[in-house]
Amino acid sequence: MGRLASLLKTSQASDATSPIGRVTTADYFILLSRAMENLPDSNAERRAEVYQSARHALLTQLEAMNPPVSRSRIKAEQRALDDAVETIETRALSAPLDDPEPPVTLAPGHFPRFFAANSDVPTVSASTTHDDDQDPAMAQSQFHSKFSARAVEEKPMSRLDEINRVLRKLQSDSFGVEACALISEDGLMIASVLAADMEETRVAGMTATLLSLGGRAAMELGRSHLQEVIIRGESGYAVLVSAGRGALLLALTNENSKLGLTFFDMREAVRSLQKVL
Known about the structure:
Elements: H1 2-15, H2 25-37, H3 44-63, H4 71-94, H5 136-144, E1 147-149, H6 159-173, E2 177-184, E3 189-195, H7 200-220, E4 228-233, E5 236-244, E6 247-253, H8 259-274
Antiparallel strand pairs: 1-3, 2-3, 2-6, 4-5, 5-6
């Protein structure tokens, strides 16, 4: 439980200087992902044990904090952890399995002590990789285009599939848009259509940083609340707008794109996303 304790202590220290100091869903997502990497068998029952152990460790650490934390803070941390669990379960259940197992009810079992063993595990990427030899359909798709949606499609379409459909439409139909992504305000990648050489974790973290700096600059310069962030480079634009419900839509365009058309298409995409979020 060492990493969870360290995470909460860092959050508690930041509370003294910042109005937003709680641990985010992205922090718990990374912590749980590292724990999953160390599991010899990441089936549903094993994952349930990890989640239950995490919930127990979280409550224990919060109740032991000095000075004591409020009940509302504890509830908020528990919700952030549950959101991270839901994200991991969605991706785990959408990944293809070589030997499918019958569904197992997520019930507490013997709780492994996993937090202390994960201090040096590298950060896990949110994307799912496949062996080209085992998945010829995916290999063929990547041969035709270097841009590929990083989620596995299922029938019927899940909410994540709907989000990826909107992103793919924006990337393919909007003039000059080369890549796009939906990212939470705390820097967690929700879904993306990115170039193969772009790291999801880095893109998500940079987007959250742009939101923070842009919002502060807008207020300090007397421009009131931030509406969008536009960055222009030699190779094109990075455009960031709000998608509602704590989500951000990022579009990366080439140098020939027309910002007016890009904003129009992004607004259309936001309207479609808000029906799903």
